[in-house]
Amino acid sequence: MRSVIGAGPIDSPDVRPLFDEPDAADAVWHRKTGLYPISQMLVVKNAALGSNPDLAGELFETFNMARVLHLGKLRPGDAAAPEDRPLHQMVDVSGEDPIPYSVESSRKTLETFVGFNVEQKVVPERVDAGELFPAATLVLG
Hints:
Layout: E1 2-4, E2 15-17, H1 22-33, H2 46-51, H3 55-73, H4 85-94, H5 103-119, H6 135-138
Parallel strand pairs: 1-2
Helix pairs in contact: 1-4
């Protein structure tokens, strides 16, 4: 038997969630901490940003457009696509945008993530979340 975290639906008798009632545990954790899990990030080398000053803003807008289009297809209570189930659940839990997409909307989570990395000595010192992103993306979203 294997335990997993955040793997989504799995149809195997050999795999079970790490926590009993994981959806309820997620809701309790979010209400307690106010943290929103970040599931993906895109990293671009400084050299690429330096050689193309518009790249950061263009990438941000492209991914944001895809996010907005996807959210527009979601309807409350509509579970047509299994991959959308977690988004519906996050709206139920947080009452917020299920895919927050700006530094400010994710600031508390980012600062907590940075703090964990400092505590675990992955990075030497705390930095402001805004310093992790190109300036062109800080005013977007």
